[in-house]
Amino acid sequence: MILTWLYVPGDRPAVVTKALSAGADAVIVDLEDAVSASRKEYARAATAELLGARHQVPVHVRVNALDSPWGGADLTALGGLHGLAGLRLPKISAPEQIVGVAERTGGVALYALLESAVGVERAYEIARAHPALRGLSLGEADLRADLGITAEAGLDWPRSRVVVAARAAGLAPPAQSVFPDIRDLEALAASCARGRSLGFLGRAAIHPRQLPVIARAYLPGPEEVTAAEEIVAAARRTPGAVALADGRFVDPAMLAGAERVVALGRRGAPVPS
User: Fold this and answer.
1) Percent of the chain with pLDDT over 70
2) From CA 224, how far away is CA 132, in angstroms rounded?
3) Rounded to whole angstroms, what are the CA distances from 224 to 113, 121, 203, 243?
4) Predicted confidence (pLDDT) per residue in 123-134, tens digit
5) Torsion angles phi and psi, residue 80, rounded to 5
6) How far apart are CA 76 and CA 185, in angstroms?
7) Alpha carbons 101 and 124: distance in angstroms, whole number
């Protein structure tokens, strides 16, 4: 039940260390967009040193694109390290890319970032490519550029496409892409509410101040938890089809959703502002 993912640049080890105690559910060390070409090798070496040990917070790494001059070296250096919880693979557009990385990294959890029209169109194929793939998400900045999108509504279909593809493949609901304005927390909250309504679960952040906003947006309220607990209790009392007091029937899909709400409700209050 990861709700908050915090991106940090891989060439700033002190910032990475600080991020591990910032309150995120997981930290993503970025070797791609946040690191200039001249510092790629340093970032990789610093990240490999960090991942020589396990940490209380899961540490994922966004490697460079597989067809870049650095992607292959990233996989070689990081794939077998004990402290690596997962690899984020940018600019994925074909299932064969997932298969190739999975065979090369030996069972490390993989997450595909879809950042092009081709990637979105092939979302379901990519989601089913290999058991090592644990999740999909969008790289919305690159996708906007690829599609020429100028309005937020233009992303609604790609977002829904990724949510449906992940569900159809039996993966966890995707996390939302980053919100680039670290100062406008009100707009972030509204964007998270919209993402939740589309079926996303949690969000990536680029600054610790965004974390409590994301957590509050995705944690269910008391009324939601109470309603979900009633559904779970009714299903346990009466195996098979069961009707609630308001006339609704509880089916397996409704029960699964209720159990997720109850599990999220047990997380407690979000990290402090």
Assistant:
1) 95
2) 33
3) 31, 34, 20, 18
4) 999 999 999 999
5) -105, 10
6) 38
7) 18
Please count the residues of the chain: 273
Query: Buried b / exposed e across 67-93, counting CB within 10 Å, b at 16+?
Result: ebebbebbbebbbebebbbbbbbbbbb
Q: Residue written as tokens 């040990």?
A: 53
Q: Is residue 142 within 8 Å of 178, Cβ to Cβ? A: no
What type of residue is 120? V
Torsion, Cα of 221, 227, 229, 231 (10° steps): -150
Of 264, 268, 26, 22, nearest to 137 by C-alpha is: 26
| Cα–Cα distance, 44 to 31 (Å, whole number) | 7
> Could you tell me if 254 and 228 are in contact, meaning their C-beta atoms sit under 8 angstroms apart?
no
Write the pLDDT tens digit of every residue in 114-172.
999 999 999 999 999 999 999 999 999 999 999 999 999 999 999 999 999 999 999 99
Amino acid at 251: D
Tokens representing 95 are 């299932």
Instruction: Give how far Cα 267 sits from Cα of 109, 238, 262, Å.
Output: 23, 27, 9
* Distance separating alpha carbons of residues 167 and 134, to the nearest angstrom: 11
> CB 149: neighbour CB atoms within 10 A?
14
Strands 4-9 and 203-205: parallel
Contact criterion met (CB below 8 Å) for 28 and 88: yes
Lookup: tokens for 102? 């999975």
